[in-house]
Amino acid sequence: MTRVKGGVISAKRRRNVLSRAKGFRHGRGTKERLAKESLVHAGKNAFNHRRDKKTVMRQLWIVRLNAAIREEGFKSYSTFINALKLKGFGLDRKVLSEFAQNHPETFSRIAKQVDAIRA
Questions:
Q1: Report field, pTM of the whole predicted structure over 0.70
Q2: How far apart are CA 56 and CA 94, in angstroms?
Q3: How far apart are CA 40 and CA 7, in angstroms?
Q4: Domains in the chain, start-ordered, CATH in brackets?
Q5: What 8-state DSSP symbol labels residue 9?
Q6: DSSP character at residue 30
Q7: How far does Cα 82 stand from its chain's mean position?
Q8: Separation in Å, CA 29 to CA 15, 23, 46
């Protein structure tokens, strides 16, 4: 059987790892072993932070809604959401937050309809 050295494949693997670690500081961007480990950790963080981003956005929508709701005369966010569910509105927090921020007149109309059930 002929001998296979595999230098081309090893060099390609090394080049790929180091190209993905480009911009990392110190040995993490230049040394293969450190770069590999850094990429594993970076991948874990990227995975977790994609999920965290959803939580952060939902919190932002709730804060925006709470501010807009209090301007409309509601006591709190929770009372508004409860009244909204009792009324049977199918709008989620993202859409309501968008209305509150960019279309305040539409949001006021929604709040008035929800307020009618509360009174």
A1: yes
A2: 12
A3: 24
A4: 10-118 (1.10.1900.20)
A5: H
A6: T
A7: 25
A8: 11, 6, 18
10 Å Cβ neighbour count for 97?
Answer: 23
- pLDDT band (50, 70, 90) for residue 119: low
Q: Tell me the DSSP string of 49-99.
A: HHHHHHHHHHHHHHHHHHHHHHHTT-S-HHHHHHHHHHHT----HHHHHHH
- Please check whether residue 43 is in contact with residue 74, taking contact to mean a CB–CB distance below 8 angstroms: no
Which contacts (CB < 8 Å, 24+ apart) does range 70-74 have? 72/107, 72/108, 72/111, 72/112, 72/115, 73/111, 73/115, 74/111, 74/115, 74/118
Mean pLDDT, residues 90-119 taken together: 89
- Cα 52 to Cα 46, 56, 101, 113, distances in angstroms: 10, 6, 23, 34
Does residue 71 surpass a pLDDT of 70? yes
